User: Fold this.
Amino acid sequence: MIVDILQREFYHNRVSDYLVCLAIIAGGVLFIWAVEALALRRLKKWADTTSTTIDNFLIGRVRSTGLPLAYLGLFQAALRTLSLTPRVERILDGAGIVLLTLLSIAFVVALIRYAFEEYIRKRGEDASRDRALKGVIGIAKVLVWVAGTLFLLDNLGFRISTVVAGLGIGGIAVALAAQTVLGDLFAYFTILFDRPFEIGDFVVVGEFQGTVERLGIKTTRLASLGGEQIVMSNKDLTDSRVRNYKRMARRRVVFRVGVTYQTPAEHLGEIPGIVADIFREIEGIALDRVHFFSFGDFSLVYEIVYFVDGNDFPRYMDAQQKVNLRIYEEFGKRRIEFAYPTQTLYLNKD
Assistant:
């Protein structure tokens, strides 16, 4: 009786064939559950103890992508043990291709996101990190989804050669019409990866200067010292020479002092030593050199070079003010006069 039931056919398959298919599915599901419970959980605990993040990423992808792929392969293999009509086989193939494509797209997007996050994390955090990351990930998602959709349509039997050709011609037309926008977009990626400046840096670009407030896909905005906002295209920034004062570890200062031609020679020789003694009294600055530089039109010129640690402009101005006051005091004690523009007229009486 049982043998007769097992030999009965429904839709070109015996009952025993259906039972074998169900047994394969049940056994496969139990096996996948066991692997997930035993192997993946232990690997997850081990990954949490390591200092790297790539193992956590891979284990997470196995859970979110690998396990669905395993179930997909299991059901496909189990159903292949049955005699299926061509229509049902096409439906199964199409469903498998759709699910495989979606899982592949999800994996690629996650991989791109992980790569960008790791790159930006290693380069250092800043206020623009999340905003920049969202912009890059958004563009990457669009490209991956377009490529995945074309791959899916091609494997489903659609003729996409005409569509691809149309997209190519349309892409060329759009690129020609939007050269400026695309130039700013590529410049945005250059700034993002090369990091010539970051949010909060004080930069000078040509005749413009200010603190970087925002880095956008097309423009970068600076807050000038006068209070107004300066909006510059990214391409202008990458094509220009940018001076980033935030990254200046040491400021080199050069200034000159002029004394009158009536200054005695012995005082002229004392001036370098006077200036050196003044710099020893002031903390945070280091004298490089003091030299009798040149004979000016109305003065004897001394050139003084020193260094200030850090990039703080008020600190530099405080140091320069102290130096100027001390030079004025010491020159006054020795009656060394500062020069100012003068002219001497010689009259001949015939």
About this structure: The beta strands are 9-10, 13-14, 202-205, 208-215, 219-223, 229-233, 242-244, 250-259, 285-295, 300-309. The chain has a mean pLDDT of 78. The domain at 188-244 is CATH 2.30.30.60 (SH3 type barrels.). The longest strand covers residues 285-295.
